[in-house]
Structure formats: structure tokens, C-alpha cells
Design brief:
Layout lengths: L13 H28 L4 H26 L14 H4 L1 H13 L5 E3 L11 H6 L8 H8 L5 H13 L3 H11 L1 E4 L2
Parallel strand pairs: 1-2
Helix pairs in contact: 7-8
Length: 183
């Protein structure tokens, strides 16, 4: 129920607080049903019911404004295809991902550029299911509980793309059993 380990030295407990708030929201949702029933069963004056109704209406209005601010008026249906945004924003990547999904069998390692979380990096492996040498570094760090595993791979991925030494490149390709390189 509680997560007390965090990897963000500049933002102590940021990830833990995210998880605690998520848990607190679930508990609040469960308790709210009881509170509403309790409010309705109490014999109080009209002011109590009026204030309770205003507070309840405020809470119930949140989804309306939250959805509207994020999704607009919900007049454009984009479907359930998580790749559809790529058709216009990254059409070449969209075609490449579809080709990979149709033509590459198994789980061969694909090399692609790595980068920070919540960016367009690692989009090929994320949308094909193929393993890559390194995706989002901070997520890899978080999942493995140590920076020791993803850290050296940052430089190795850079070398794989930029090295002028064929010997060094071949060794890294062999080390990670890379079958495909995405450029």
C-alpha cells in the first residue's frame, strides 16, 4: 500500500507522493459513498444541507471541467488506435512501425535512439514490442532500482550511432544481440 523507495534525488519522495495521492484518492472515493449516505440520514438544519450540496456539486463538477479542458468538447472521435496520432505527426515512423509489426517475427533486439521520459524516444520499441538497448533512461532506472544498469548504456547507444570504429560497433552489436538498427 505504501512505497517508500524513490530514485529522484532532486525531488525527494516525488514518486512516493504520486503513489500515496493515488491511493488516497481511491480511499476517498470509497469513503465518499458512506459520507453521502450519512449526510442524507442526519437530521440537521437547512444550512447544513445547503453547504453539503454546494460541496458535493463542486466535486461532481470536476470531471466535466477536467474532461473538457483535456479533450475539448469530445466532438472529434480519434478511436482506440494508439498509433493514429503518428499518421500526421510522424508519418514515416507510423509506416515503419506498421511494417515492423507485420514483417518481423519473434523478439529481435532493435537499436533506436534513447532519451528522457515522456518524449518521442523509444517509440519504435514501445509500439512494436521489440526490445531495445535502452528506452527511457529514468524509467529503466526506476524499474531496476539502480542506475548502474541503464547508465552505461547511454554512452553505448551513442557510440553505436556515432562511432567511427567498426570494431567497437561490432562488439556492441554482438554484446546486445542487435538485429535491427532504426535510423
Amino acid at each position: 500500500f505504501f512505497y517508500v523507495k524513490d530514485i529522484y534525488p532532486a525531488h525527494y519522495r516525488a514518486n512516493t507522493m504520486f503513489k500515496l495521492v493515488y491511493q488516497a484518492f481511491m480511499m476517498l472515493s470509497i469513503v465518499s459513498a458512506y459520507v453521502i449516505v450519512k449526510i442524507l440520514s442526519e437530521k440537521k438544519n437547512i444550512l447544513f444541507y445547503f453547504i453539503s450540496a454546494i460541496l458535493l456539486a463542486s466535486v461532481l463538477a470536476y470531471p466535466y471541467f477536467a474532461i473538457k479542458s483535456y479533450y475539448g468538447d469530445l466532438k472529434t472521435y480519434n478511436g482506440l488506435d494508439g498509433l493514429s496520432y503518428m499518421k500526421t505527426l510522424l508519418p514515416d515512423d507510423y509506416q515503419a512501425i506498421n511494417w515492423i509489426n507485420k514483417n518481423i517475427k519473434g523478439q529481435p533486439v532493435i537499436l533506436e535512439a534513447q532519451g528522457d521520459s515522456y518524449t518521442d524516444y523509444a517509440r519504435i520499441s514501445a509500439n512494436t514490442g521489440l526490445p531495445t538497448v535502452l528506452g527511457w533512461t529514468v524509467h529503466e532506472w526506476l524499474w531496476r532500482g539502480t542506475y548502474d544498469i541503464p547508465a552505461p548504456r547511454i554512452e553505448e547507444v551513442r557510440k553505436l550511432y556515432e562511432s567511427e570504429s567498426i570494431f567497437e560497433t561490432k562488439n556492441l552489436v554482438k554484446k546486445y544481440d542487435i538485429k535491427y538498427v532504426y535510423i
